[in-house]
Amino acid sequence: MKTTAFISAAAAALLFSSCISHPSRANDHWNSASLAPRVARVMLGYDPDVDGASYRDYQWQNKLAISKTLQRHFLNWNPDNPYQPDDPDYYAPRPVHSPLPNPLNYFHFESVIIGSILYGATGTFIPIPIDSLIGTLEPGGEEEFVAGLTTTFRPLRVLTVSFMEDGLGLPPYEGQESGPSVSSHPTPAR
Prior knowledge:
The protein has helices at residues 2-17, 35-44, 48-51, 55-74, 103-106, 109-122, 130-137, 141-167. It is mainly α. The chain has one domain. The protein starts with a helix and ends in a 23-residue tail after the last helix.
């Protein structure tokens, strides 16, 4: 009788000790949904409980740290040194996570290293920005990716439409009185 009660108490203790109540699934090894966060933590060093909810912000902070280290060692420039001129871009907010308008923010030093490894292995230099691609595939990353492309190509679209209308004398869009025009270049009188 005592053995049965002891075994029942031990089984109940094991059952209740496996239950957890914190929101992170990265440490919940009883759940199959914990696989991706655990792999991300081991392979990328990213822990959402410590580093924040957005991988894009985490990888941008890593890129800033790498840039700062390289500038300190190779360019003898340190943004934290009060005797050197300030860099206003250093403390600026994170730019849009997209290869355009500035591809150096998207393809960083990591891409050069991976491209060099692929060049040694295959003879072709292919820079693959793994951190940036993971940030793009994260929820919300596609919108930032498209926003960067839209910001880059919007002036070309506006200039092309105003040129087609004004320069070539083509009619405006259907359903509109006139197409978009560039405000810095006034439309000539017809």
